[in-house]
Specification:
This protein is 35% helix and 21% strand. It contains two helices and six strands.
């Protein structure tokens, strides 16, 4: 079952990309609002909030980290994985959707 949780986490994070791209177009080419900058997690509002809840349901209610660049043209989001202890799944605007060794601390997966 842990691998199923990880597969769902990856799928939901892919949906974050689709939602963020729609938001980018709606917000005049800005990713403003993808992340909640007060706690550096995925936004609690709208579709982002629904996705955050779904991801947390799969990862054991752990934070879904999210950072936007200062100019709002980049973002990255990551969640802890369940089967791969200590690993996180990360997605960024540059195109990466990869497993990383630690939670993110900026708007990139690196």
């Amino acid at each position: 079952r842990p691998k199923a949780h990880d597969a769902n986490i990856k799928s939901y994070i892919h949906q974050v990309r689709n939602t963020a791209e729609f938001s980018y177009i709606q917000n005049n080419e800005s990713y403003t609002g993808v992340c909640d900058e007060s706690d550096n997690t995925l936004s609690n509002s709208g579709d982002f909030g629904l996705l955050e809840k779904a991801i947390k349901n799969e990862n054991g209610d752990l934070p879904v980290k999210c950072y936007e660049s200062v100019d709002k043209i980049d973002y990255a989001v990551s969640s802890p994985l369940v089967a791969s202890l200590g690993k996180h799944w990360c997605l960024e605007t540059a195109g990466a959707s990869i497993e990383v060794d630690a939670e993110i601390t900026s708007a990139t997966c690196q």
